[in-house]
Amino acid sequence: LSTGALRCMSSTHQQVVPFMEPLHVLGGGNIGMLFAASIRAAFPSYPICLLLREHHRSRIDPEDNNVIVCLMGSGRSSRPRLVPVPAQIIGDKSLSQRPIRNLLITTKAYSAVDAVKDVHNRLDVASGASIVVLCNGALAVKDELELMKSVSPDDKINLTLATTTHGAYQVEGVSDMFRFIHTGKGATFVEDHPTLSQLFDQSGLNSKSITQEEMTIMLWQKLAANCAINPLTALCDCENGMLLDKEQQLAQATKKLPNIYQIIQEVALVAQFTLGKNSSQEAAPLDFESLSAFVHKVINDTAHNRSSMLQDVTRRQKTEVDYLNGFVVEKGRATGVDATANEDLCRRMKALWRSYAL
Ligand code: KPL
After folding, report:
1. Is-contact 320 108, C-beta < 8 A?
2. Cβ distance 42 to 203 under 8 Å?
3. Beta strand residue intervals within 36-177, DSSP E
4. pLDDT in tens, 94-116
5. What is the CB < 6 Å shell around ligand 1?
6. Given this model, what pLDDT does residue 12 score?
7. What is the pLDDT at residue 11?
8. Strands 81-89 and 66-73: what pairing?
9. Which of the listed residues 239, 298, 310, 317 should we mutate to test ligand 1's pocket, taking the one with most ligand atoms within 8 A of CB?
10. Do 183 and 301 meet the contact criterion of CB atoms below 8 Å apart?
């Protein structure tokens, strides 16, 4: 990665890239690949590097240290784009280990802190490193990273949050290429970082920079949607849209699962107490009515999605429940708010996880 005064032109327009600092993307999952490949597709010489785990080594071409990402749209007419993206294995001593100035975290929530620890020796903490958290459960991840930061108070690390509604999923192929379907176009929001946001925007990721206050509201709204949709779809093995189906709701009631409204009500109260929103005007964007309307919209907009938690359960992988419903339970305990519906969902998801081992 070159930090020089590189002028990087877009592949389609003679457009100067707005944010020219090297960017390291931590996480070889759907969102990390989508972001890294979209940026390189738009700006082929952009100094970006994917930081991957050892099991991805065979996918990196030793000649040029690139992985090939095949990006496809979900429409029939969309043509696949093959995008070479520079990549490194985390901790690989044989390669040049340039300092990391800007780190975009796109790992699963439960891997974020360990992944940051693994690259900590490369973070440019002397001149100031910027970490942008783009994970589900970003509020919980931020708390953990703040705690980690407090252990080394001299490190200059600027921690910001981002969120996206872009969806992508990986399709297995015979080659070493990463193949992704970019399902429907979403939007990306970045906290107080106009140039990085512009880079995402000009890479087709429809992005906007927003204030910290706006981001906090947005992440609690997203949390409400994830707490209501993810475990219920995972436990009932259904697409998001089915949660509004009357028969499905009856089946959930028979299994004594909490209903969507109990879950949202708890998130609304916990948010209100955690953020100290005392007046009804202050609490308005996160009150029960607003959160319910938000969750309904997400369910309708993503009706045919299989939620990320359902996908994890289908692959028998660990889920992010501790960073979603578990976070609400933890904040509920700290503020004296009852969160039994969310606690029940954590318990059920953990029982499901334990049952895999049998
Ligand atoms: O973020 C999601 C997820 O699956 O994790 C939702 C919004 C529920 C879309 O599926």
Report:
1. yes
2. yes
3. 48-52, 66-73, 81-89, 102-105, 129-133, 157-164, 167-171
4. 766 789 999 999 999 999 999 99
5. 136, 225-226, 229-230, 240, 298, 302, 305, 307-308
6. 55
7. 57
8. antiparallel
9. 298
10. no
How far apart (Å, rounded) are the C-alpha atoms in residues 27 and 33? 8
pLDDT tens, residue by residue, 242-300: 999 998 888 888 999 999 999 999 999 999 999 997 777 777 889 999 999 999 999 99
Is-above-0.80 flag for pTM? yes
What is the rounded distance in angstroms from the CA atom of residue 256 to the CA atom of residue 251? 9
* Band of residue 73 on the pLDDT scale cut at 50, 70, 90: confident
Pick from 136, 242, 308, 312 the residue to mutate for probing ligand 1's pocket: most ligand atoms within 8 Å of its CB. 308
* Alpha-helical segments (H) within the chain: 30-42, 112-119, 138-151, 194-200, 212-236, 246-254, 260-274, 280-283, 288-301, 308-314, 325-335, 340-356
Atom 4 (ligand 1) nearest CA = 307
The mean pLDDT value for 62-76 works out to: 86
| 188 CA from centroid of ligand 1 (Å) | 14
- Quote the CA–CA distance of 160 and 30 in Å, as a whole number: 21
β-pair partners for 23: 48
Q: What is the pLDDT of residue 88?
A: 94
